[in-house]
Design goal:
This protein is α+β, with helices and mostly antiparallel strands and 70 residues long. The protein has one domain (2-59). It is built from two helices and four strands. The protein has helices at 31-39, 43-51, and strands spanning 2-8, 13-18, 22-26, 57-59. Strand 1 and strand 2 (13-18) form a beta hairpin. Helix 1 packs antiparallel against helix 2 (43-51). The longest helix is centred in the middle third of the chain and has 9 residues, at 31-39.
């Protein structure tokens, strides 16, 4: 489900790249949340239960998608 996760501590942004849907940027995420995500037994489950729907997010406009739904 999740391909890559990066965090910008200064901006408080969490960038998550999903295998199927591309890159999304989550705003105002505490550093402790990123650390918990990285330490979670299942990153996908942690994301769905703790991050998804709890933080403002937007799709990365710089990320180009390929394929039939791109």
């Amino acid at each position: 489900m999740i391909d890559r996760v990066t965090f910008d501590d200064k901006a408080g942004t969490l960038c998550i790249t999903f295998r199927e849907t591309g890159k999304y940027i989550y705003h105002d995420v505490p550093a402790a949340m990123f650390e918990a995500l990285c330490a979670a037994p299942s990153v996908g489950t942690f994301f769905n239960e703790t991050i998804k729907g709890h933080f403002r997010c937007r799709r990365d406009p710089e990320r180009r998608r390929f394929g039939p739904n791109g």
